[in-house]
Amino acid sequence: MPAGASNISGAALLARDVRIVLLLLNDARHRTFQRVFAVERNDVNLVTLIVLLVIAEQMQATSSRVRAGRGPTLAEDFMGFGIVREALCRVAGPNARDTPLLASLLAIAVIGGTVRSGLHGLRGSGHSADVAFHKRYGYLVDPGHWRQRRAQRREAAVSHR
What we know:
mainly alpha; 5 helices; 3 domains; 161 residues; 0% strand
């Protein structure tokens, strides 16, 4: 054994080397984020988390776009149209096969009903949101028409003098 050597195993030396490399990489990350994002050293970990979340979201969006890029083939389209036509004919009854543009008529009826109920729900949810907002924050908000009425009352009071 050499004079300065001790009885440290190779695994312990490897662990120390890995720890030193990780400390150096962490210091490099801190310095890079401080220069790029102009943050202080104690905020670097939070910025790193935000950057990692943004990268993860972009990767997820890209992978879903790649997976969704393959559309149905022409054969799948024709099979789908055939299935929909048969389903519509069964719903409409036995004489439906002789009706011209049956699918268009049924599609217009379904879309019209859906749009009507959707608009009704939208109108109702808008009113509900408005009522809830004014219940919570109405005392903080002074809508313009209240200001206008107050100004009209003031003008009327001044003109009566």
